[in-house]
Amino acid sequence: MRIVTLIGSIVGSKTRTAIKHTANLIADSYPEHEVTTIDLHDYHLPFSEGINYLDLHGDALYVTKTIMEADAIIIGTPIFQASIPGTLKNVFDLLPVNAFQDKVVSIVVTAGSSKHYLVPEQQLKPILAYMKAQIVQTYVFIEEMDFDKQTIINDDVQFRLERLVEDTIMSVESHRIIREQKEASYDF
């Protein structure tokens, strides 16, 4: 199974810390799966021009192709001004409409305030649903007080991240079985 963990911002450390922790959980608990972390800080992506992602070049082609080849994507995003960052939205715009079809997508959110709890529900999940994602419904919301010196200090957050990883992998496996059964039911 190919899993991409995506750090959806080019600034800040909390989302980076949460996603690196999540990637380490996958590597430790599920070493048979391939994990690739894409940190948007490390890539230069042009603004979307509406072209096919296979016609992109350099970093943009690598990022979009890696996402398209994944079985699961764990998106990490901060909340800025009660919204997802433009860098993350640009990644979605670089991808085709059905980019997440037959893929499981889960969400890790970092925010400075509990007031931003519903931003993933109102902004991120509708985009993912439009792009045909199988969304893990329970996302992990992490506040500023859950971090200290680029470390997650809240045991509950760590438990929820472990559960998110488990739910993501189980969802991929379940959807694979369902697709195989459906394909086997055809007579041709």
TrEMBL record:
NADPH-dependent FMN reductase-like domain span: 1-143
Top-level taxon of the source organism: Bacteria
Annotated EC: 1.-.-.-
Signal peptide per UniProt: none
Record keywords, A-Z: Flavoprotein, FMN, Oxidoreductase
Example GO molecular function: oxidoreductase activity
Family matches, as PANTHER family: FMN REDUCTASE (NADPH)
Protein name: NADPH-dependent FMN reductase
